[in-house]
Amino acid sequence: MPYRAPVDEYRFLFDHIVGLGQVTATDRFAEATPDMTAAILSEAGRMCEEVLYPLQRPGDMTPARLENGVVRTSPGYAEGYRAIADGGWVSISAHPDHGGMGLPMTLTTAVNEMMSSACLALQLNPLMTQGQIEAIEHHASDALKAIYLPRLVSGAWSGTMNLTEPQAGSDVGALRTRAEPNGDGTYAITGQKIYISWGDNDFTENVCHLVLARLPDGVPGTKGISLFLVPKYIPDDNGDPGRPNGLHVVSLEHKMGLHGSPTAVMQYDGATGWLVGKPHDGMRAMFTMMNNARLGVGGQGIGVAEAAFQHALAYATDRKQGRTPVRGGTGAIIDHADVRRMLATMRADTFAARAIALACAQAIDMQTATGEAHWAARAAFLTPIAKAFGTDTGIAVSDMGIQVHGGMGFIEETGAAQYLRDVRVTAIYEGTNGIQAMDLASRKLMDGGEAAHAMLDEIEAQAETARGTLPDLAEPVWQASETLREAVEWMVAQQDTTQRFAGAAPFLRGVARVLGGHFHLKAALAEGGDGPRSRLARFYITRLLPEHAGLLAHATQGADDLYALTPEDFAA
Amino acid sequence: MPYRAPVDEYRFLFDHIVGLGQVTATDRFAEATPDMTAAILSEAGRMCEEVLYPLQRPGDMTPARLENGVVRTSPGYAEGYRAIADGGWVSISAHPDHGGMGLPMTLTTAVNEMMSSACLALQLNPLMTQGQIEAIEHHASDALKAIYLPRLVSGAWSGTMNLTEPQAGSDVGALRTRAEPNGDGTYAITGQKIYISWGDNDFTENVCHLVLARLPDGVPGTKGISLFLVPKYIPDDNGDPGRPNGLHVVSLEHKMGLHGSPTAVMQYDGATGWLVGKPHDGMRAMFTMMNNARLGVGGQGIGVAEAAFQHALAYATDRKQGRTPVRGGTGAIIDHADVRRMLATMRADTFAARAIALACAQAIDMQTATGEAHWAARAAFLTPIAKAFGTDTGIAVSDMGIQVHGGMGFIEETGAAQYLRDVRVTAIYEGTNGIQAMDLASRKLMDGGEAAHAMLDEIEAQAETARGTLPDLAEPVWQASETLREAVEWMVAQQDTTQRFAGAAPFLRGVARVLGGHFHLKAALAEGGDGPRSRLARFYITRLLPEHAGLLAHATQGADDLYALTPEDFAA
């Protein structure tokens, strides 16, 4: 059951749903012509199908391991990584000044998704590097840029993010790693970091760690944190990897999935680091890195959803079992109503999550190209939704994929279970989905809900337009948008963020449900209301969209009843 | 983080929610006095806490394996099984005529749940034996009963169910295993069966397989299937295990979870079998076995939900991270609104699923004790809900348990991931949850919805009663019941079962949501509207119950739009 890159799907989304044309009409992204876009999609797609997808199972069965302090990666991963680097796929959005192609994030998002479908564990490596490139582009000195950017963009070196410590997870401000000035402009970094994805490997010449640490005069909490670049090998005068730095991998985690990706405990013992950005301003630099990484992780979820869907579809069209009299029946289990319901749910939600993520990427591109604040606000609003709904969809679709397989789904050889085991972490890392929801319900509504209302205005304007041709689809989307508007107003009216947080998770999911209705309606409109996308839109709008009402009822209950439940109540 | 058997929770449910007293007031179950019930719960609970729970992780890390044709079970499993057998916990509901205690299924359900919490992989063994005992009690000859029942009830021997073949899963009628008369009253069984849970072990003296096969004159499909008892060792004249039978384990599956439970491919090569029930009537006998096994599997899901909840709660009350100003704050992550929301959801749904399962068990007991048809109808109606909602809750709660743990949840040493990996299969085996939903939406409404409406009448009568004291909780439950009544009427009105099947899964979940509201309201009433159960009921009714509307909207869309989506559409 091979993976097939959904190139036509991206083209449709680019052309009709998220407006890539608007991006490529700007000077900044003028080079991303339709021909270029087509070539990128088809070449990246082919690599994913032919080179990366065959690495998925071997990575699961032969995890990365630590041997005498050295990380040995899974069979074929070195060759897979070489194909990614040689194809220029580590970062097609990096600035041309440093060897990048300067292409839109919209395109990067599609390419990242395809790589995630094909081999999530390996794709996580260049995704981390992409974030590092962005942080260095925005915050590092020219000297650091000159050494690091070309090598990261080419894939010769790879990058990691070092935030978490045992006592400092979601609460980054509690970190204890120290940075002491060496007197020569460098710093001695000392401390232990955990959950470092791709903390080491045996296929890049160097591994560059971006490490959050506290300077001697750093105050407690997040305001006393600085960001340092700490390479595995210290670059020599030519910029080549020189002597080993004072850091090592202590151990690798034994994880539920993503076995091909080594998750390291890293120890820094006075390792030499270079400051990135200003002292005590590390969180801002880290957020640059994390913001787009959140979109990237959302794309990971969507990529896995796509692959799990294809896998289940192939099984459902092949497996004969039982008989159901249906028009055009195939004799396979896809004829069964409940199997078809599952497949339609998987596909409809994958489309919704993908449209949200690409709309987010498009807003980032428009912000980059125009500098206009409303694009920045739109991107900021959509980012936590793209991350949380994308990864929740990855998990839900993978889980449904197991169910479509019946008993086979529980057997590892089938491959369906691996999707769920692999993708499960995406709802946790890069900020748990709970953190994403809190971000949406508080910081992303700090504008009084302006960005949210702008989105709702757009949804309702389109629904108004669609009333003429697709009234039965337009009306529920318009109604859902109104219900969501009330929920947004309720959120904005809460002065106490705890009141918002108590319903943040269902609020985020409710927003995603309504956005999904909007994009499905748009797809149906683009098709003239008749065709596969319109049929899928009808499925989504009549069956899945209604979920928003229950979610938004939950979202606006406030915190009082929740906190009336005491810890003692739970133990009762 | 030890597991604590929720003995008080069962007592509360027995006394106030599901009416165990009504059961023990019958002659048949008069021996189940309150003292006896208390003793059973506390003794079984202690065994689960002290003996079974420590076996959970070792079973995962050291799976059962096949060595030279012999199954070697996980470390400590033999001793764990011995404790189950010696305690009499294999089947406390078996009839006293055969060494059983004849206790109510309501009590068995609680005991099974606790064993599932403690060690699901091992508990699956006696659960299979329980089903076999029931099939033999109802359908086997006196001669077979005399040999097999005492040994199965004591746990000296264990039982399995052999239905599935590679081409015959949910479509059992497609099976090919043959049974040829030997001329001496026995039959020669030949064929291959897959997914045989506990197909062999190294701790019971004999393993008794109930095997579905076709006699030479059996017609194709389910009407030509007969049931045979095929022991691993053929009993000698004393009933002791004699010469080996013509069967063997071909291989064990490599599964996503439940590693401690050997899932076998079984080969029968002219193995000697004894007919159970009448020729060609095997499905009826198998349904006796499967019906209560479905309730048992629902209990597995609930048991795992309980354990995963306790595990997450312990973490959330221990783990310090971030600061949230809350009344009576503990400084641990349980103070965070979103964490508390997850824990409350886990606990509220576990309560709902448990109440449904115990209500189902109680109806079975009343049917057994009184023979009244309305109890049978109630039990039949609740069984697929208990199975599907119980297991879906097990999966959802385990998944949320991972999320509560954050990054730790993805690390296997934590133990949170194992709950999800183990419980995932419960939505698949003993009839997938899709099959359960189809059963509910078709066969369980063949009475024109009488059993459903009886349930709804009960829900609304209670809600009417509650209006006086708890109007804000009573009203939404009453309204939800009315919405559900409309959905039931819609279902009953569909002549074409495909129309029902297209919405069967959301229908089942919608029914469960409303039943959950009913039982939570009942708990609040029992407490006088003030206390931990009332606070949990408020959480459920205001936040989770609203989900029913979206589900029932989905449930009543019919099949036309669904089948308008062609297989080609999915590949688009």
Folded structure, characterized:
The structure is a homodimer of 572-residue chains. Chain A has 572 residues and is an alpha+beta fold. In chain A, 56% of the residues lie in helices and 12% in strands. Among the domains of chain A are: 20-152, Butyryl-Coa Dehydrogenase, subunit A, domain 1 (Orthogonal Bundle); 159-280, Butyryl-CoA Dehydrogenase, subunit A, domain 2 (Beta Barrel), CATH 2.40.110.20; 432-562, Four Helix Bundle (Hemerythrin (Met), subunit A). Chain A contains 20 helices and 11 strands. In chain A, a hairpin with a 2-residue loop joins strand 1 (65-67) and strand 2. The longest helix of chain A has 37 residues, at 282-318. Chain A starts with 6 loop residues before the first helix and ends with a helix. The mean pLDDT of chain A is 96.
Topology of helices and strands:
Two copies of one chain form a homodimer.
Chain A: H1 7-17, H2 20-24, H3 34-52, H4 56-61, E1 65-67, E2 70-72, H5 77-86, H6 105-139, H7 142-154, E3 157-162, E4 178-181, E5 187-197, E6 206-214, E7 225-231, E8 233-235, E9 241-244, E10 247-252, E11 263-276, H8 282-318, H9 337-370, H10 373-404, H11 416-423, H12 433-441, H13 450-466, H14 471-493, H15 497-501, H16 504-526, H17 532-544, H18 547-555, H19 560-564, H20 567-571
Helix pairs in contact in A: 3-6, 6-7, 6-8, 6-9, 8-9, 8-10, 9-10, 9-16, 9-17, 10-11, 10-12, 10-13, 10-16, 12-16, 13-14, 13-16, 14-16, 14-18, 16-17, 16-18
CATH classification, class level of the domain at 20-152 in chain A = Mainly Alpha
Helix content of chain A: 55-70%
Helix count of chain A equals 20
The count of DSSP E runs of length 2 or more, i.e. the number of strands of chain A, is 11
- What is the SS-derived class of chain A? alpha+beta
Please give the oligomerization state of what you see.
homodimer
Q: Which fold name fills CATH's third level, the topology of the domain at 20-152 in chain A?
A: Butyryl-Coa Dehydrogenase, subunit A, domain 1
Largest interface: A-B, 100 and 100 residues
* Mass-distribution shape of chain A: globular
Please tell me the overall pLDDT of chain A. 96
EC number (chains A, B): 1.3.99.41
Pfam families (chains A, B): Acyl-CoA_dh_1 (PF00441), Acyl-CoA_dh_C (PF12806), Acyl-CoA_dh_M (PF02770), Acyl-CoA_dh_N (PF02771)
Domain Acyl-CoA dehydrogenase/oxidase C-terminal (chains A, B): 281-443
Cofactor (chains A, B): FAD
